[in-house]
């Protein structure tokens, strides 16, 4: 929903949903009107912009989104609901909890902020804690190192742009960098990473947020798919930068180096990942 954001998504098999939802998603998959993958991010972002630029601004949509990202593997349908309303509530709660009151009042009128918070509280009371599970995690201006852990370098899918003369390649459509893996592999890799970090770094391991990702993955069907999508971040990177980005493989090498006593290798690989994404984050303040 953010222009320069990356996404960590879980696609659950259709059988993981309640029976009433299965028909809804099956019909949705057959619909000609649903947003296609190539335009889905733009559609989702456009909806958010329209709400926030309205008078007054609407931080959370009135209804939950009926849309989802879909994948098919050997005729099996996998669904990742957008959950735009829930994700907006969660993001708004984080913003409200970390923003000074006076600044918050300038961003969103107090009456609307309080109504939004009341609506979310009512939703939580009625739906229960399980209803707070989101299939999509979002981060702006960078990819956290912990998000690379569930994947292998060979699961990388890169699509580069084709610019017209004089056109900046970063503005062309269709460019993307994603990783996709099975839930079983994702859980195995995060468990291994946690074990390595705890064994060699002790309490410091908690600073890497791998445990948080591991717990999140455990909330979903064991036959799900897990996807890391660079999303809007590709617009901050030219084709050479995208081709050179091997963050998943480099972080894996860092963990292997740490586990096998190759401390210099571990440090070098980890620093390569950290410096790449710190330089990306600096672009936020430049804008």
TrEMBL record:
Pfam families reported for this sequence: DUF8083
Domain DUF8083, first and last residues per copy: 4-284
Name of the featured protein: DUF8083 domain-containing protein
């Amino acid at each position: 929903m953010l222009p320069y954001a990356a996404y960590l998504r879980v696609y659950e098999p259709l059988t993981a949903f309640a029976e009433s939802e299965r028909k809804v998603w099956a019909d949705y998959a057959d619909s000609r009107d649903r947003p296609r993958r190539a335009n889905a991010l733009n559609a989702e972002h456009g909806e958010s912009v329209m709400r926030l630029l309205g008078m007054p601004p609407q931080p959370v949509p009135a209804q939950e989104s009926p849309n989802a990202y879909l994948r098919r593997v050997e005729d099996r349908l996998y669904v990742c609901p957008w959950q735009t309303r829930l994700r907006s509530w969660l993001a708004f709660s984080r913003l409200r909890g970390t923003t000074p009151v006076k600044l918050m009042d300038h961003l969103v009128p107090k009456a609307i902020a309080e109504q939004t918070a009341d609506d979310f509280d009512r939703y939580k009371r009625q739906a229960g804690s399980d209803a707070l599970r989101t299939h999509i995690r979002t981060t702006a201006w960078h990819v956290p190192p912990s998000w690379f852990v569930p994947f292998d370098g060979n699961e990388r899918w890169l699509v580069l742009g084709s610019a017209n003369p004089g056109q900046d390649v970063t503005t062309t459509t269709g460019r993307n960098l994603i990783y996709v893996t099975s839930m079983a592999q994702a859980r195995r890799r995060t468990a291994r990473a946690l074990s390595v970090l705890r064994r060699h770094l002790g309490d410091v391991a908690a600073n890497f947020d791998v445990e948080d990702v591991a717990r999140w993955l455990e909330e979903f069907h064991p036959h799900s798919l897990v996807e890391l999508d660079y999303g809007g971040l590709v617009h901050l990177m030219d084709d050479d930068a995208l081709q050179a980005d091997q963050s998943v493989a480099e972080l894996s090498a860092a963990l292997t180096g740490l586990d096998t006593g190759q401390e210099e290798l571990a440090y070098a690989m980890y620093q390569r990942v950290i410096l790449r994404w710190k330089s990306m984050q600096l672009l936020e303040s430049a804008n």
